Amino acid sequence: MGSGRIRRLASVKARTPRPGRPARLSRERIVEAALRADLRTVTMRDIAERLDVSHSALYRWVGNRDELLDLVSEVVVERILPTTEPTPDTWRQWLADLAWRMHDQFLAVPGYAAHVAMPHRHNARAFERLRGRVITAFKAAGASDALAVQSWHVFGLGVVQWLGAQQMGHELGPDAPRFELFLDVLLRGLPAREPGSP
User: Fold this and answer.
1) Would you say residue 47 lies in a domain?
2) pTM higher than 0.85 for the full model?
3) pLDDT tens digit string along 164-196?
4) How many domains does the chain have?
5) Does any domain span residue 64?
6) Element (DSSP H or E) covering residue 137
7) How far is CA 30 from CA 26, 34, 36, 55, 156, in A?
8) Nearest to 137 by CA among 157, 155, 163, 164
9) Does a structural domain hold residue 19?
10) Is there a cis peptide before residue 191, judged by omega within 30 degrees of 0?
11) Side-chain half-sphere of 166: how many Cα atoms within 13 Å?
12) Sorting pLDDT into bands at 50, 70 and 90, what band is 24?
């Protein structure tokens, strides 16, 4: 066999993918596939099919559906957190900006707001970051440590439940508040105060 033919065969062999070789995966590709799926019903099989990889290849990166949803939460929380820090002069606007970022990002991912609104184990790392920043905002408003934590729960529960109901298509009635009205009333009542205090 001539050396030219050997070189041509070697070149063809180098370009031909090996049978059964999985496509290259990364956490970024996996999360991107999940962000396009409906997170209320998505399965590991769905994600593997979207990425055109075997189940075993996907499981080498993500152990189960809960880990997949944790990865999604890390990305979503990263997107919604403002780059600035709240101050005594800006805390209310800072929280309003955060709530609108939550509105836009949670509703942009199919099923994500509904998923977060349902009782379940949240991603501790991602949501602890969100919790910490919101508590800092309420402390900037003058709330004590304890009332800043209570205010976080009121704020987080209120915004997430509104978004979850919106995404699940629940009929809240024709007079259900628009998000901007709901948010305005919510923030005017925060930070939390002890009942009976001025």
Assistant:
1) no
2) no
3) 998 887 656 667 789 999 999 999 999 999 998
4) 1
5) no
6) helix 124-140
7) 6, 6, 10, 12, 27
8) 155
9) no
10) yes
11) 22
12) confident
